[in-house]
Amino acid sequence: MTQHVSIDHQTATTAALFADSDLLDEIRSVLKRPDLGDDVLLSALASSPAARHGINHVTAMPQDRETFIRTLPVPAPRHGLEMPQHDLNPPLAVRFAPLVALWHRALQPLAPQLKRVPVPAKDR
């Protein structure tokens, strides 16, 4: 038994239109995001309202193209020097080490006074 699968031809043709043009390179340069891959950009273009309404990106004016590009829902950039989770939450001993050192330095002059001195026996 064969199953009938409906293919959305409009989505397929818009993806082919975007892939054939150099719009993907233009998007990367306008957004200043060379890290965006073709698959991410194609999915953003396919999900944009302008693509669903059939706006022709090839013959549009440059300012219209820039406005369209700036409204695309692209993922947030990842910082190249992100720290691992364990570095962001160090253990308590590491966090409070400066405070403990400060406390020890503050108590050093008072340490002799804090020692218990035996009371001398007066009348023996």
Task: Provide keyphrases for this structure.
glycosyltransferase; Glucosyltransferase MdoH; 124 residues; EC 2.4.1.-
Question: What secondary-structure arrangement, pairings included, does this model have?
Answer:
Blueprint: H1 9-20, H2 23-31, H3 38-47, H4 49-52, H5 62-70, H6 85-88, H7 92-95, H8 97-107, H9 111-114
Helix pairs in contact: 1-3
Number of helices: 9
Distance between the termini: 114 Å
| Number of discrete domains | 2
Task: Assign an overall shape.
Answer: rod-shaped
User: Element order, helices and strands?
Assistant: HHHHHHHHH
Q: Give me the secondary-structure category.
A: mainly alpha
What fraction strand?
under 5%
Mean pLDDT: 73
Assembly type of the chains comes to single chain
Largest sheet, in brief, is:
none
Specify Rg, calculated over alpha carbons: 33 Å
Helix content: 40-55%
Weakly predicted, low-confidence segments:
4-11
Number of strands: 0
EC number: 2.4.1.-
Enzyme class: transferase
Keywords: Glycosyltransferase, Transferase
GO molecular function: glycosyltransferase activity
